[in-house]
Amino acid sequence: MKHNITLKINGQSVSAEVDSRMLLVHFIREHLSMTGTHIGCDTSNCGACTVLLNGKSVKSCTYLAVRADGAEITTIEGLSPEGTNHPIQQAFHDQHGLHCGFCTPGMILRTVDLLKHNPNPTESEIRWGISGNLCRCTGYNNIVKAIQQAAKEMAKEKQPAV
Amino acid sequence: MIPANFTYHRANSLKEAISLVESLGEEAKFMSGGHSLLPMMKLRFATPEHIVDISKIEGLSFIREEGDLLKIGGLTTQSEMEYSELIRRNYPIFLDAIKLTADPSVRNVGTIGGNIAHGDAANDQPALMLAMRATIIAEGPNGRKSIPIDEFFHGFYMTALEPADVLVEIHVPKAKKGCGGAYYKMERKVGDYATAGVAVYVQLDGNGTCSEAGIGLTNVSAVPMRVDRAEDLLRGKKITPDLIDQAGALAAEDCEPTSDLRGSEAYKRSLVHTLTKRMLNKALERAGQ
After folding, report:
1. Is A136 on the interface with B (CB under 8 A)?
2. pLDDT of residue A158
3. What digits encode the pLDDT tens for the residues A47-101?
4. Residue B51 CA to chain centroid, in angstroms?
5. Which of the ends of chain B has fewer CB neighbours closer than 10 A, N or C?
6. Residue among B4, B55, B106 minimizing CB distance to A132
7. Alpha helices per DSSP H over chain B
8. Residue B196: phi, psi to the nearest 5?
9. Under CATH, which architecture does the A2-78 domain have?
10. Does B3 lie at the interface with A, CB-CB under 8 angstroms?
11. Which of B201, B233, B234, B204 is nearest to B217 (CA)?
12. Separation of alpha carbons A149 and A146, rounded Å
């Protein structure tokens, strides 16, 4: 069965017809051609598909597209204006918070939600905070450093966490 | 992985949700957070023909104290519990469990009601509910009903809920002086189901006697279980280290684990013994505060 949905993605309103069973991640990648959101494990373990849904980090491989009707979604493509870096993106760049980069969009969007609830996390809180996002290059130390830098920068700038 | 074909229905009210499932029949399933159901559908372990989405129904997401009770709306997400000031202040047992349930992004969507209604002994909330002697409030075609937790879990994925019943509220005792609860589960990695988990809830009276004790176990039986013998042992007594060890031994004896990839039966019994002792000590410490 087809459903008409309308949602906001990265500030743009989008309407489409989707099947009941279409997953949000497929809608984003295949219908909207935004491939920054990755499919890793496809079982809600790895977090590569993390997007912000109404400001909360959500695993888009385990969310039906039809349920996102009326929602506001942010993907890595829309985190900061074209050509600029969000402080979290800049921190991942500065701290080399990635090896292969596959987990990075999910890590960054998860960090947005983490810092919104806990602007000044301890190292342990950061590690628990990203526990649903796997980096199989195991580059966690630099990811943690990046999140620490981002927290510091964002506190300085008092930039709203999207 | 894409789930097998089904038809999605969005319910805008409780009444609509119930009548939808009633008219669609047994091949219809409610979905709240969907973080247990959708993975099962992707793996074809579940192939419902109709999904009735109840997540958009208003008024079923709340956490409030009323009279002697803490009332939790069925659609309250695990994250809403985790960030709730009331829960952080007065109900540490929930924080213990929620921090060990899945991961933060899953908890943003997964609900407390769904965790219970799924009827899975591997989920964490059932053990808490058993220990706290919760009452489940369900609404169905014939109106509202209260189901004591001891009558709620019937079997593997089977509960007292009829197909068109929605779990709308959970009632547990309001925190008061002398009460304490604690939960811990051993997990192989973040987001895994428990190798074994133990929830303990105690109530001490003015002179330190244990007037009420609840012990619920996670993933060491086909149906979520409480340990009556251990509870009976503690009730009405001043709790000593010796009694705590005996309660742990009874829990280890009475649980029904099976050997699997998470560990042997003997290992799981040993875990239940140790965790029961630890959680009793932690709950007593919290009760004394």
Report:
1. no
2. 72
3. 999 999 999 999 999 999 999 999 999 999 999 999 999 999 999 999 999 999 9
4. 23
5. C
6. B106
7. 14-24, 37-42, 78-83, 85-90, 92-99, 104-107, 112-117, 125-132, 228-234, 241-254, 265-287
8. -160, 150
9. Roll (3.10)
10. yes
11. B201
12. 5
pLDDT at A157 over 90: no
Structural domain boundaries of chain A? 2-78, 87-154
Q: Does A103 touch chain B (CB under 8 A)?
A: no
Q: In CATH, which superfamily holds the domain spanning A87-154?
A: [2Fe-2S]-binding domain (1.10.150.120)
ipTM score here? 0.95
Q: Domains along chain B?
A: 7-53 (3.30.43.10), 63-173 (3.30.465.10), 179-287 (3.30.390.50)
Would an 8 Å CB–CB cutoff place A26 in contact with chain B?
A: yes
How far is A96 from chain B, CA to nearest CA, in Å? 24
Beta bridge partners of B212: B203
| Range list of H helices, chain A | 24-26, 87-94, 104-117, 123-129, 140-157
CB spacing of A113 vs B104 below 8 angstroms: yes
Q: Do A62 and B3 touch (CB under 8 A)?
A: no
